[in-house]
Design goal:
Elements lengths: L6 H10 L1 H10 L2 H8 L5 H7 L5 H10 L1 H9 L10 E6 L2 E6 L2 E2 L1 H10 L7 E6 L5 E5 H17 L7 E5 L4 H13 L2 E4 L6 H11 L3 E5 L1 E4 L2 E4 L1 H7 L7 E5 L13 E3 H5 L11 E2 L3 E7 L7 E6 H14 L8 E4 L6 H14 L2 E5 L10 H9 L3 E4 L1 H10 L2 H4 L8 E5 L5 H11 L6 E5 L9 E2 L13 E2 L4 E5 L11 E7 L8 E2 L3 H9 L4 E10 L5 E6 L3 E4 L2 E4 H9 L4 E11 L3 E10 L7 H15 L7 E4 L13 H9 L12
Parallel strand pairs: 4-17, 6-7, 6-8, 7-14, 8-11, 11-12, 16-17, 16-18, 18-19, 19-20, 31-32
Antiparallel strand pairs: 1-2, 3-13, 4-5, 9-10, 14-15, 15-25, 20-21, 21-22, 23-24, 24-26, 26-27, 28-29, 30-31
Helix pairs in contact: 5-6, 7-8, 7-14, 8-9, 10-11, 13-14, 16-18, 20-21
The structure holds 5'-O-[(S)-ethoxy(hydroxy)phosphoryl]adenosine (WTA).
5'-O-[(S)-ethoxy(hydroxy)phosphoryl]adenosine binds next to helix 14, strand 20, strand 26 and strand 27.
């Protein structure tokens, strides 16, 4: 194939002239196109212009000297003081860049102000109602400093936990960065979560402040957030609530502890020195579902997380200075933390953020935005792609999507059908599909397709340079190619979680199930080329539309209802959402199962945990399959539902 020139001209050609690429693509032979449609991208071309270059060479460089590898990346960022040691590995506890001093906002903001990025657009925001705002790096810097000064004026200090419960708006990003600026530990709670989820996260993290909005908007409907906060802070340590008031007439602030977001910024200085943070000081807590009990507060620290997210933006998402990056996640999830906010700002790219729903006002809205803003990197979830597939090609076809250069995916397996559609209909068979596997706990991408490497539909890809991944049995022995096993990561990496907030034992459990390995909780298969296919969770976490929920959380919400004695929930495969929740409920004597009661229970879960946790179906039963020690055997329920073999039943009680 002859669509190659010198590295520079190829780069220019890719980043500027996609139409020209399309024209040249049209001239390649049909045999070559057949190869493309089988998932074989013209790899050499992408490799030449990618930041990573040759995967094998980069991986070998990492294996030869992992610490040197990471220190070279870390050196691309600015530190107030250099590290004494790159890694202190005291299994299973790691410290990265020990002795180093930094502040992630210095690298996200200040660092760019002395460069040509000073007046570059940092954020483009599109609201649910179609309104837009554009904020440059310099403006963002000033707003973050002002808000940080506001927080200081309330007495917020380094190490304080601050809970952020806001929709996807520039104010949310300002609030998050302002916390990091002063060294406060942010604890962002997805605004789709309900009262109980918010309350338990505030309590567990002992947050002193809550930053919220009066409302979020979805499909033109106003959703009240403030009243949820009012109830969630009862019996907690919250001292002040800062409210971003978006609606008119203005929401009244009644109590003494409530302050308006912009009043807090008024007359504040446009500069504040970044708090000097130790590399290992906490940066944030983010809650994720566990297999048992309450959600786990995953703790990330300043230095390592900064290096990991910067690195993966550069080499996995292959960011270039001219990119417009759109990650469609919500900052309430790790994807939003790492790839809406921190990574892209560290890299100094322009990012699009949006409150929009993919099918409102119509299923063309996202493609309209891609065309309007010239999005080059689109990072979304399989559930969204499958939803678009259902609406048909006619929607994306209305828009010019030539600006797209990289299509990325996260959250759950990208099934081959969705891969093909994403690649052909959105990418016009010329953009790589980067399927990124990682977790809240890992902080950054771990196993993924890399630009310039062969793509295999259905496979996430290989471990990135810097990461060692394997598929093993319970004893830690590598599985043969083609055999299903446990996905593990060997050894530490900079952006790994440092602990579970207030529960070191829960942290250790990730590392002690199989000696020396971090057990991720997913089942996977490796092929002969080392490509990893993710099969799904091996534990009681259900992934619904890319959001993970613990069965335990939903079950305990159900049991809280006065009519429920016991409950078990399982995930049932769904063509669009990946999974939906089915609940089995035993009622307390005197209650009888009816449609009305089922609706009431669904509503109860919605109010407690939020809309994403709502069971799609509730079945009233007399008993549940259990082990002799009393543990519910969800796999038996699932096998029954799916008409499959339930497997070993020797531990089941009579
Ligand atoms: C699943 C999201 C297959 C997986 C970044 C993991 C995936 C869990 C992929 C973590 C992918 C994430 N292919 N499965 N590309 N990405 N998962 O913590 O089960 O919200 O363990 O982090 O999502 O979800 P979390």
């Amino acid at each position: 194939m002859s669509i190659r020139g010198s590295t520079d001209s190829v780069l220019l050609f890719y980043t500027i002239n996609y139409v020209e690429y399309q024209r040249r693509y049209d001239t390649i032979t049909s045999q070559e196109k057949t190869n493309l449609s089988h998932g074989y991208i013209p790899a050499e071309e992408y490799r030449e212009m990618s930041n990573l270059g040759n995967y094998q060479t980069a991986y070998e460089r990492f294996l030869k000297d992992p610490e040197k590898f990471w220190s070279e990346i870390a050196s691309e960022l600015e530190w107030f003081k250099e590290w004494d040691q790159i890694l202190e590995w005291n299994y299973p506890n790691a410290k990265w860049f020990t002795g180093a001093k930094c502040n992630i906002t210095h690298n996200c903001l200040d660092r760019h102000l002395n460069t040509e990025k000073r007046n570059k657009v940092a954020l483009i925001w599109r609201g649910d109602d179609g309104s837009e705002r554009i904020i440059t790096y310099r403006q963002l810097f000033r707003e973050v400093c002002r808000f940080a000064n506001g927080l200081k004026s309330l007495g917020a200090r380094k190490g304080d936990r601050i809970c952020i419960y806001m929709p996807n708006t520039p104010e949310q990003i300002i609030a998050i960065l302002a916390c990091a600026r002063i060294g406060a530990v942010h604890n962002v709670v997805f605004a789709g979560f309900g009262m109980e989820s918010l309350h338990s996260r505030i309590r567990d993290s002992e947050s002193r402040f809550v930053i919220t909005s009066d409302a979020s908007f979805r499909r033109g409907k106003r959703i009240d957030l403030k009243s949820i906060v009012d109830r969630a802070i009862v019996h907690t340590s919250v001292e002040k609530v800062i409210v971003h008031r978006r609606t008119r007439p203005r929401t009244e602030l009644y109590s003494e502890i409530e302050i308006d977001f912009y009043d807090l910024m008024k007359e504040r200085n446009y500069f504040i020195e970044p708090e000097v943070m130790d590399s290992e000081d906490p940066l944030f807590i983010l809650y994720t579902s566990g297999t048992t009990g309450t959600a786990k507060g995953i703790l990330h620290t300043c230095g390592g997380y900064m290096v990991g997210t910067y690195y993966t933006c550069k080499y996995v998402l292959d960011m270039k200075p001219s990119d417009v990056h759109w990650c469609t996640a919500d900052p309430g999830w790790i994807t939003g933390h790492s790839y809406i906010i921190y990574g892209p700002l560290l890299f100094g790219t322009t990012l699009l953020i949006s409150e929009t729903t993919p099918d409102y006002p119509d299923p063309g809205v996202w493609w309209d935005m891609v065309e309007d803003f010239g999005v080059t990197i689109l990072y979304t979830a399989p559930t969204a792609i499958r939803m678009f597939m259902r609406h048909g090609e006619k929607w994306p076809e209305k828009y010019n999507l030539d600006s797209l250069r990289i299509l990325a995916s996260v959250g759950e397996p990208l099934n081959p059908e969705a891969f093909e559609w994403y690649y052909k209909v959105i990418g016009k068979s010329r953009t790589p599909i980067v399927d990124t596997w990682w977790q809240t706990e890992t902080g950054m991408h771990m196993v993924t397709t890399l630009v310039g490497e062969k793509m295999k539909p259905g496979y996430a890809g290989k471990a990135i340079p810097g990461v060692v991944a394997d598929v093993v049995d319970k004893e830690g022995n590598s599985k043969k190619a083609g055999e299903t096993g446990i996905l593990v990561i060997k050894g530490p990496w900079p952006s790994m979680m440092r602990s579970v907030w207030g529960n070191d034992e829960r942290y250790r459990q990730y590392w002690t199930q199989i000696k020396d390995y971090y057990v991720v909780g997913d089942l996977a298969v490796k092929d002969d080329d080392g490509y990893i296919q993710i099969i799904g969770r091996s534990d009681d976490v259900i992934i619904i539309a890319g959001h993970n929920l613990g069965t335990a959380e939903v079950e305990s919400a159900l049991v809280e209802h006065e009519a429920v004695a016991e409950a078990a929930v399982i995930g049932i495969p769904d063509p669009v959402k990946g999974n939906i929740i089915k609940a089995f409920v035993i009622l307390i004597d005197g209650y009888s199962g009816s449609e009305k009661l089922a609706n009431e229970l669904t509503y109860h879960v919605r109010m407690t945990l939020g809309p994403i946790a709502m069971p799609a179906e509730i079945k009233f039963v007399e008993s549940l399959p259990k082990t002799r020690s009393g543990k519910i055997m969800r796999r038996v329920l699932k096998a029954q539902e799916m008409g499959e073999d339930p497997g070993d039943l020797s531990t089941m009680e009579e």
